[in-house]
Fold these 4 entries.
Entry 1:
Amino acid sequence: MARPNDIGWRDAPDRPFEGPVGWIEGIGLAALTLLGCLRLYLRILLGRARLDVPAFAAALRQSGLSILPAITLVAAAVGAILGRQTETILGRFDLPGLVLLPVTYGLVMELVPVLVGILVAGRAGVALAARQATLSVTGEVDGLLVSGIHPIQFTVAPVLLAMLLMSFGFVVWVSLVTFAAAFLWLWAQVNIPPAMFLDALAQTLTPSDLLEALGKPLLFAVLIALIATINGTAADRDPQGIGEAATRTMIGAIAAILVADFAVILLARG
Amino acid sequence: MTRSPPPALQLSGVFQHVQGHAALADIDLRVEAGEWLLVAGPNGAGKSLLMRLILGLDVPSAGTIRVLGEDIQRLDWRGVTRLRGRLGAVLQGGSLLKGQSVIENLLLPIRDLPGGRARLAREARLVMALLRLDGLENHQPRSLSLGQRRRVELARALIHKPELLVWDGLTDGLDPASARETLQVLSEQRGSRQLTLIATDNGADALGATCDRVAVLERGRTVFNGGPSDLAQALPERLDLRYLLQGRP
């Protein structure tokens, strides 16, 4: 950011988002990025701008299809773990109707959205931060600027859209796989009938709960994209800066996901 | 009474401080529309910094820069974007997007213009043919030679028919024959419409007689500003210029 020095001149730009007001600059950039993306989506809907289809397809591949096997495996493993732990509790308290309620609720409302958020952050968020940092390191960002293209919108807009779509898809898919794994485990080990499982689902989850569970990963996706943008933009113009941007994004995204999750719970439940 | 057109570029008292020292100091420069200016000087003289300021990629520490009649520091993002639509730029070190093909890179400045992609791609192919880049449409920049990458950058700079072309590192990566050929293309562009060119190079040999004026920078200051013939006359008398441009006393 340009800053006035003691003789009233501005020194050449240094690393952004540093100093006592750096965090305000970061929030400002995040807000502008989000507004810019929303404006671009609106213009695309109105036919005044074009969606960068190759970049969107690449982002879909990167944030979605490429991690589908991994996310399925993680979901199945989490489901099996949960089933095994539930089996332990059922060994102590033979109240399957009661024990299944918090398990189901916690799984749908917290575990799956947070899991999806962390996996999307690890793949798409880190890739976005690294991409933006690389643009600065290689001088490609200057090429975009002189071509009259906003570099942040150019990189973030297709990726954010892909992240939103994939997060929604993932939360449905991961819920199904996790449930299936947990249910199969409990059915095989303690002979809990499918009807009891479905009954627990119907008793614990209201339509507004389901909306909240489906909406949270979308909020997480927006936060991940903005955190990646801030870190990618602030990265030093050297290869080390790319690695640092990726690491900061992962840590920042996990922290933001958990804090946002808690904030949503407080807002929704008081 | 007719008003004369504004200059394509006017710099007044431009300073740029980098980490506490003046990388550019008190630069005054005026380039008329259609004029060709060569900014020459050794490495570290401040040429690239000057080009970045002209393109609005950096903000000067002090002074004013008017590009095509507009004070670039007073423009908001939309204004700068609109102005950049009238500029073309070839940057030192390269600025092509590595993950995109040559044709996708070329289409960047015109991607939001009306007309289908096929029509825009046809325009891109015309510019590619002009610069002998035919057949490289689907190549990735990393698979091209340095000279080819420079020509792709020039094609991207010319595709939207700019009024002012800023070329940092005129002969970088170009062999003498390619440099001559590229200058010939630019001469043709100049003939068909009024194109202002500002280019940088270490020496003053590259443009030779084709440029209208030469400005020589040394440590961020202008030490010469005049026509090529004035420079040729000054060289025998001025040891400093000979040293800066030819590397020998």
Note: The helical segments of chain B are 47-54, 77-84, 102-107, 117-130, 146-158, 176-192, 228-234, 239-246.
Entry 2:
Amino acid sequence: MNLRFGRRAPGEGPLAEINTTPLIDVSLVLVVILLLATPLTFESSFGVRKGDALAQPALVADRQDRVELTITGERQVEVNGRAVAVDQLAGALRPLLRPGSPREIAVACGDQVSHGAFVRVLDIARQNGAQTISVAGD
Amino acid sequence: MRLQRSPEPPPLARINVTPIIDVALVLVIILLVTAPMMSTSDLPVELPGAHARDLERPDFISVTVARDGRLAVDETAAAGIGDVPALVRGRLAAGRDRNRLVVVRADAALPHAVVRRLLEAAREGGARNLGLATAQIADGRP
């Protein structure tokens, strides 16, 4: 009986090239999947609380510290009852949402104002320190 | 002197199945990871853009409303807003987490009244955590 351990047959050279085929296969599949999933990964979302109507008297105590935003038009907002253009909203909110304050806003929005304008205001509020966003009901 | 030819290597008798197993395993993993994301409806929706990122949970129930008013809860079409509470309730009951996030994916051009009614419908269906979907604008704050 002739046993050979760990020795190559005569004429059989060493394996000089790395087989890259599996690596390329896996990479191509990953590229295809990522291309398909890319639009979904660029979605995010704002957490919102469904709040009560701003005029509800039971919440007067709670309302003292929170900021009330009323979106009256595509580019017009009221901050605690004071009319502000959307372009100036960041400056108006920053002192009201400073660290130490409750950083809570209640947003009411006109029925015909577009969802895009509504989200733009939420985005500005969030970027300037709002942590809790309540959307006022009817 | 006689030259002696080295013996020919034996023919490849077996198909190399390693690449196909590699690809199959990668596909399985990717599908497992992306399955929750793929459950959203493919209704055409132009989401409003936003810089801020807030909720990043991969597992959520989506309520989608297109510009033309077509509705879907996850991938199931809804005939109207009246159907949304029951569909959301069914999804919440089917999952393990009763506090699953319910995200309203509404077209940016829709009036706010529609979105507000959908938020109310989702809450009526038992949703405790609500979100509004946005399209991430590049160069946004993390």
Note: The first strand of chain A starts at residue 43 and ends at 50.
Entry 3:
Amino acid sequence: MPIVKFLVRRLAFMAITFVVITAGLYGVMMLSPAEARATLYMPRTDSGISFNQLQLIIEEYGLKAPYPVQYVRWLGSVLRGDWGWSPTLRDDVLKALLRRTPVTAELILWSVLLFIPLGIFSGAVAAWQRGRAADHSFRLLAFFATSIPPFVLGLMLLAIFYVGLRWFPVGRLTVSSELAVKSAAFKTYTGLVVVDGLLNGRPDITMDALRHLVLPVFTLSLTHWATLGRVTRAAMAEELHKDYVTTARGKGLSWRKTVWRHALHNAMLPALNSSALSAAALVTGVFVVEVIFGLPGVSGLLNASPGNMRLFVPDVAATMGFAVYGVLLVLPLMFILDVLQAFIDPRLREGAVL
Amino acid sequence: MRRLRHFFTVRLNWVALLIVGFFFTVALAAPWIAPPDDPAHPALYRYLEGQTQVAPLPPGPGLPLGTVAYMMDSTGGRELLHFDIFYSLVWGTRTVLRFGLLTALAAACLGITLGAIGGYVGGALNFALMRITDAFLAFPVIAGVWLFRTVMQTANMELVDYTNLTPVSIPSTPFQHLVLTLGIDPVMLTLILFSWMGYARLINANLISLKEAEYVQAAKVAGQRPLRIIFRHLLPNAIAPIIVLLARDIGGMVVMQAAFAFIGVSGTVNSTAIPEWSRLLMMGRNWIMGAGGNPFLYWWLYLPVTAALIVFGIGWNLLGDGLNLTLNPHEVARKRFG
């Protein structure tokens, strides 16, 4: 089964990537003193930690051992689900991350569902209408979309639509919906409030959540929409010059059918490939957008500030947890886009090209 | 030469050169545009003495873009200082250009070296190097920024020894010591470490296809040494897309640094390593977004800086696009006949 082979290869790629990245992360952490790494194995306590305790941890976990030994030990605890204790959040790192996941997942999900179809569609239209009004307006829009950094765009949208017009609020939900969601009567099915609201028969909560999502999703999607549209436009323009298009036209197929049935099929590959490559940028963008719009997502771990400066305990566990988690967000995104590509292109499925 | 002439026939390329040239001019002419108090040792910022007002001062005579008020930690406790925005903006072009050029060049060097080694040697080494490159592409930069920040926070750590209740200071590692003494921005390190992949992939793909080219085979048969083949025959042909990427990256790095600074994952405001424009954004942040912040009331805190950032990014991007059309023969042909 070539498709199984394809999937196995992609999964192997993900595993290798995970190992390479985590090795890199721990390698960077090796640049700090052993006492800092010892906080990765800190006891779950609300009080500060003493020099003596850290010495015991260093002893017990062999944190003066060579790098590979330490790395394997840490990777083992990560894989077992022990991501350490964050002294600033006063919480288990993995638990804190999982609790904040729905907000982040919602943001990524709606953005991807918005910008991938729109980007491919508008890029294809622009290539099809090359040199005409639709093409020019697409290129102008795409130029502005890529020129404005997302954080500036978010700031301006906040100023206009939140502070000025009061159309769209910030945060995740208004207080009344928040209370309704937290009440016992509200069942959590997916964690995504938009979906759960409908499943609970509370369309008002869904609407409320959507209203809160408009600005962040728009901010996050705009640059990615423009990049994807540009790639699709370039790929499409190339496809439209190929012989099979001439053939299709020659046997009497309409332009419309030639573009949407034949050329788009081929042009979508580079488009999806570019999306897969920018998955990491998308995740970085999610965190930036979360901070600007005050969404209680995973980026909350970034805002954790050191509490007691004298008994200063660095939050190494939260840092490493956040980084590992970031990779774990990117990899499935890349995987889904890869599988989509394989669905479109039989050559990938059959394993002719990697 | 014909390519160069082609570059100057496109009107948009002139705009690009104008913008980039403008920032270089401002950087060079900073002492005349915004005269420093002490011309012998010009500071990158200037604050007003003896101000009693708490809110930022609006633009007015002597202060073309107003001030940003910020609580600064100083030796005599915390002190509210009014920083001249115009002054920082002008002198900041120096730090911003330096940041962009240094970061992008360092990333390019790293990427070219790794990509060229893998591409020339080939085989298992290239396979491993390219898998590592792919792995790096799957990492969100922001996590790296925070990682380096935490590493730097653990420099000069102080803990308490519970047996005799005395503070124990943990010695910094050589790396931390180096970064602190050289005053390197951790964000810069991160951006270098996580943006070389594009260069490596470009040069790698190019080298692998060029290696089979007849003129390279001929050079090999003629008995030329590998290093000479790389520098004489391979790199010059692979360098065009690199220059294009480099031009775009210079703007991109500065904008990305500003974004990280604004959301608060970059260093602290007093860090000397932060580019001046990012510092302005960090100091103005609470007046715009915090409790009681108002982006309409205090527009001068962010509009000039963000406008400068956007124009800076556009300039380098346009330059990259223009160079792409000039240096890439396929693109020229497509533009002409397509």
Note: Chain A has two domains: 2-90+306-350, 111-292.
Entry 4:
Amino acid sequence: MSDYVAGGVPEGVVPRTTDARNTQEVVALVSRRRQPSVAVWGMAMLIASEGTLLSGMIASYYYLRFTTPTWPPRGDPRPEVVIPLILVAVLATTSIPMQLAAFAARTGRLMATRLLLVWALVFQLGYFVYEVHDYARQVHHDPISTDAYSSIYFTLLGADHGHVLIGILLTTWLLWKLRRGLTMYRLNAVQVIAFYWHIVNLLTLVIVGVLLSATF
Amino acid sequence: MATTVPPPASAEPLVERLEQMWQSRPGILGWVMTTDHKRIGLLYFWTTLVLFGAGGAEALIMRTQLIQPNNNVVGPATYDELFTMHGITMIFFFIIPMTTGAFGNYLLPLMIGARDMAFPRMNALSYWVFLGSAIFIYTSLFAGVAPNAGWFDYVPLAGPKYDPGHAIDFYCLGIIFNGISSSLASANFIVTIFKLRAPGMSINRMPLFCYAQVAASFGLLFALPSLTVATTFLFLDRTIGTHFYDAAKGGSTLLWQHLFWFFGHPEVYILIVPAFGIATEIIPAFTQRRVVAFPFVAIAELLVVFIGFGVWAHHMFATGMPTVTVVFFAAATAVVVIPSTIQVFAWTMTMFTGRPRFRTPLLFICGFIFMFVAGGLTGIMFLAVPFDQQVTDTYFVIAHFHYIIFGAAVFPIFGGMYYWFPKVTGKLYFELPGQISFWTIFLGTNLLFFPMHIVGLEGMTRRVYTYPGGLGWGPENLAETIGAYLTALGIVVLFANLVVSFFKGLPAGPDPWHGATLEWTISSPPPEYNYAVIPKVSSAYANWDYPDREEDRRKLASAVMVLDQGHEQPVSSPVDGWWTEIIEMPHDSPWPIALAFSMFLVFGALLFHQWIVAGFLTIAVAYSLLGWHGTEPQEAE
């Protein structure tokens, strides 16, 4: 195999998934992996696609804003500033336990991985429940069909909440999956779901910033 | 009968073991649950052919209607549906799935020396979602509510006020559904190309076909979301009363055009770039010469798509945009000429300096170059903004983009069908009927599309179901219709030839053309595991590197580098192509089709505004996803 890997490294250096049948073997295998897994590449593609989707909506927001004389138009409430900023900051902190969970999984500490995921999930769920409640309240006062401003405001915010919901479902699924130990597949899953959350947290910060820009 | 490359006697048990391990289930279940990229490629191929037939029939009905002034074969409403469905079908349901789904799926893993795509089940999912979206959108035609506002679906015509009913809802949901399929496929292609290349196949040794596929995939990945945003906004405007495109409530009709063309123009290059890739494989095989200026052609393929993202507003010169914007987009459009011309020069110089054998595939590529240059020259004319404003919405535009789309995308598809027919079937096609089909199609398309330039300049507008007599457009329209039927005849000859060749053709052998790339090193049709020994590559013309191929055979004889502990596939570093990991690939799975079917039901519920039903049906989607991820590759055996 030596001529199939860079620098003529001796045979056996290329990690082989079929060799990993338990946690110790998975950890040993991953420590020899020098490049991001194919799963990480797949997640990068999903993020590229979803990021472009939300960028398209953000671009539409500013297109509508710059073709409208006053923004938000008269009659629409100005978005609240303080509470959304606090909430999004709380959500952003969940990147820490998610990344720590990825590290813990890489070193085979299964219980630590589970606990860190639960920590992240509690805050993610808290954020989501409050935001959905708040979304319903705002739609009640200023329906989505009021004008173009409310249309783009609620669509952009709703699309972001949708991504948070998918993240919550992924974290929950991961916890359920990890109940029966660590495999290569689950280890990859922890890493890519942590990656997903970093980007969703970043996008949420950006989107909240965009929506709050109407107050300035 | 398949033409096989017999393994050395010592390797027979090994090859048998690989065959058993990679074998699909027998019968129809094997096709429904397949994750084999070759089977998925063939499914794409047959499905897109059926849809090509539908799109072609729509075109023929339109041409029959326009054969003479004041004709009455179809009425205006039906005509609207016909040109809309024709555009949607040919773009979303024929060319893209044919060049990427069928050609890309079948050939890409073979060309890079891989055993399958990076995500085999996702690959199956993209096919089943594609099939679902095709059924979804064609249901509208049979239900008598086909989309009728053009494939570009401009608002306010497509808005709730002027187009009530379900026609445009079918369009919005069908396009979003289809976009999911294309996004999945393009993500899969990108990861496959960057991560599954054979050892030694560094980026600069990758066949040009793969460059074209990666360019088209990046194009799709970044262009489709814009269309998804546009159609989502339109669907919301039509169903829950938002006002994205409603000028009276602060919306903007031009927003639709910006979002649509930000997708729509890159889309044009996404259509033709994989066809460029086909051309750059056929030319070296039939001239027995390496492509001139390889790195420039590779970069040009990527640049065409990249620049394609900066030119969208040239479709909007007649909308009254500010002069600065118009001039910027005209200049940006001029830049596209550079990478396009680099490729044309490279193709023609390769032919001039090689020893061309004008077999049918190469004839189609010559036809393609002729049509592409002709369509490109009229394309440049649109840069002159006053000229563009004069000919906007006339048949001149139709002539231009059909020279590009039929000439530059469909001709290489036909050429590619002939070129890879021996690889896929193990049979040779009949040459004389092949050449007859080429000349019939070539003459037919030119007779069909060239007179459109003239009537366009004379003022004949597009999307109108008839025209009055006495304007002098009759003879040209008659010629166009004759051309249309001639083209259809040529296409019938083409497929008849391929069908007869499938049953009566001579055995092709593994490499009838002395092709340049890796797929010609293995049996025709290829075995399910593709490569027993993972080949080592030292140039972009791997099949011409005889010492490497000798080494493959030696390795097989001594059972070295045969990955046979499961569905194994090496993963390589993205730039150099050295192995970094050996992973196990999933087996046949029922979940991709289950997931696609449950998504189909969700889209059906959304069509009828049954939000709660759609919500419940997402449980089926979630269940399919859980089932999908219930089996891990390591647990599969």
Note: The longest helix of chain A spans residues 110-141.
